[in-house]
Amino acid sequence: MSISHFAGAGGMGVSAGDVLAWQADFEAGRFMSAVERARRLVSSCPRDARAWQLLGLALGFAGEAGEAEGCLEAACRLDRSDAALWDALGVVRMRAGHHAEAARAFRRSLQLAAGVAAVWVNASQNALAGGEPGDALRFAERATGLAPGLPLAQFARGNALHAVGRSEEALVALAAALSLQPGLAIAHQSRGNVLAALGRHREAAECQRQALQFDPTLQPARINLSALLCVLGDTAGAIREARLVLDHDLTAFAAWSNLLYALVHDEASGAAVIDAAHRDFGRMAEACFGLPKGGWRVSREPGRRLRVGFVSADLRDHPVARFLLPVWRHLDREGFAILAFSGTAADDAVAVELRGLSDEWHEVSRLSDTALDALVRERRVDILFDLSGHTAGNRLAVFARKPAPLQVTWLGYPGTTGLSSMDIRLVDATLAPPGRFDAAFAERLCHLPQATAFEPPAGLSPVAPAPCMARGHITFGSFNRAGKLTDATLALWGQVLSSLPDARLLIAAVTDEGAADGIRQRLAAEGVLPERLRFAGRLSLPDYLALHAEVDIALDTQPFSSGTTANFALWMGVPTLTLSGERFVQRLCASRLAAAGLPGFIAWSDEEFVARACHWAAHPAELAALRDSLRERMTVQAERQPAELTRALEGVLREAWTAFCAAPSEEVE
Predict the structure, then answer these.
(1) Alpha carbon distance 669, 665 (integer Å)
(2) Which part of the chain is the O-GlcNAc transferase C-terminal domain (predicted)?
(3) What is the DSSP string of 583-616?
(4) How far apart are CA 68 and CA 26, in angstroms?
(5) Per the domain annotation, does 628 fall within a domain?
(6) Burial class of residue 379 (count of CB atoms within 10 Å of its CB; 0-12, 13-18, 19+)
(7) Nearest to 440 by CA among 235, 273, 656, 268
(8) Quick one: pLDDT band at residue 483, thresholds 50, 70, 90?
(9) Does 146 reside within a domain?
(10) What letter would DSSP give residue 379?
(11) Distance CA 577, CA 419 (A)
């Protein structure tokens, strides 16, 4: 936001000196001091629109949105011809999330002063926040046309270009902003966001560090840095940065999710630390975001058709959808209605199919937590599913309010949400043997025959012959993102490769040479020569699947084991060798292998992992025969398991609903 065009002038009773004194407090972030200064001006000059403007702005940035908006509306009534007042009203409304109302204020300001670039900048940022990237780009380009040398105009244009999918042009615009103002921290932050979206995570992290060098209080940059460090495998750094944000603001929801997601990746964090952190989050969320429970507009009839809602930002071509589609296709539609609350505007083929399977589809990415809570209640949802946990785009702040009588978490995240308002977590006996993890979960664990069913991509290429038969040696592979390649993982792989001197290792999904060099060095410390390694970068899905033709056995990671990658590999004829462990997150791959009938690839100790790798390397014909049969096995299972899973899920939901109906009914309207 730019305020330069309305600072410096006085009104009928407010002097230029008064404005400059207020501006010194405001620009230094001393918002309460600015509020008190402006209150004195309003008291002495109640008919001066400028005094009301200064009070409204200070209140808005101090977090008092309601009073701020009232002050600025008063200012506009006193002087309806001052473009700066309408712009200030737009800024406060934008900060409060009232984007449609802000847009009206910015339009009025531009009708009065269309040549002020700063107002176009503000209008662009509001349009972007309100989900109108095309308008945001149009407004930003008006700003750069008027003032190409205004850093914030180039900054706004870069953000808008990124939002409409023109990321390379966005980098050029953000570079222009930084050439004009090298210390513009928010431009460094935005540049990092663009680079992250392009998969250039190491560069993106450096941009967030630069942003923090120029503005150590820029908490969104630190939150972004935490997420990027986790992607890069620096879980200790991710945890540190997230905790720094929480030291500043214990209610920083995104920082909590980053912290918890990093902890489940972290090999050094024990179960007690991880469990305690999730409980701490739950207490914070329910204290800060939770509202009085109840008030549900539902009828307690055990046998009626239930309205089941699904909240996710991944109802699109995304791994979560591959696990959701088989269930939605098989759900008994006479007994259950599907209500989708989608956190994405994506309109790809998967989103179209999901929309066609749903009874109601609500695009909720622009809704506040309060508004989404109200929508779920209005739509009389009986059972509400969370499909994100602590991953990106989650709406756990809504689930903390408990907008539905029963709430279920499933898919997306390998652990508890930490919310006592979440009633059920769906698992299977491999993931969570009965009684094993009950104390670690805020939710009640409900067992299904298998935790998930997987939808493979259409048009899969045939399974290639086992490469070991032609090469005379085994080729291991990893298709997991580089951030999961922990020191413990590489040490274990090093033991395997040391035991099999002729074996090779293909590591995919390594997006930059720096990461590859780091992996080479860490494996060299385990005695693995670099020439035994091959790396592949970011690939399209068809090329990613085709790469399985080069691999005999995939090696799993720890502590965060494989889920989607193991499923893809099975469909391409490649089993994954996994080390199942004491933590829930270490059992994801074992759950899938057990469902596929492949217990021979599940190890329970480092020694067994190495022994099983050596066994399969010594029996290439047996491995080749398994490879040749896997596609048919997976096809047969895909015809049977989704229906079995869905019937079991329906039973869990109906049983939970019946128990709810039998409970005291004070909480139902």
Answers:
(1) 9
(2) 301-451, 473-633
(3) SGGGGHHHHHHHHTT-GGGEESSHHHHHHHHHHH
(4) 14
(5) no
(6) middle
(7) 273
(8) confident
(9) yes
(10) T
(11) 33
3-state helix, strand, coil in the chain (%, to 5): 60, 10, 35
Cis peptide before 559 (omega within 30 of 0): yes
Round to whole Å and give the CA distance between 11 and 73. 16
Phi first, then psi, for residue 507 (nearest 5°) are: -115, 115
pLDDT tens digit sequence for 440-471: 999 999 999 999 999 998 889 999 999 999 99
In the listed set 266, 294, 309, which residue is the last one of a domain according to the structure?
Answer: 266
Domain stops at, among 266, 301, 326: 266
**Domain extent at residue 227:** 195-266
The C-alpha angle with vertex 187 and arms to 183 and 191, in degrees rounded to 5, equals 125
The edge-to-edge listing of strands for the beta sheet with 475-478 is: 533-535, 504-507, 475-478, 553-555, 576-579, 602-603
Secondary structure class of 362 (helix, strand, coil): strand
- Count CB-CB contacts under 10 A for residue 11: 22
Q: Residue 525 is which amino acid?
A: A
551: CB partners within 8 A, 6+ apart: 467, 475, 476, 477, 506, 569, 574
Read off the amino acid at residue 55. Answer: L
The domain spanning residue 512 has which CATH number?
3.40.50.2000
pTM: 0.90
- Domain of 82: which CATH number? 1.25.40.10
Is 106 domain-assigned?
yes
| Residue 384 to residue 621: CA distance in whole angstroms | 48
Structure tokens at 540: 């399209």
Dist CA 474 CA 577 (whole Å): 13
Neighbours of 610 (CB within 10 A): 21
Instruction: Tell me: pLDDT of 8 over 70.
Output: no
Number of Cβ atoms within 10 Å of the Cβ of 578: 29
Write out the DSSP string of 513-560. HHHHHHHHHHHHTTT--GGGEEE-----HHHHHHGGGG-SEEEP-SSS
User: Same domain for 179 and 216?
Assistant: no
For every residue of 654-668, DSSP letters joined together read HHHHHHHHHS--TTB
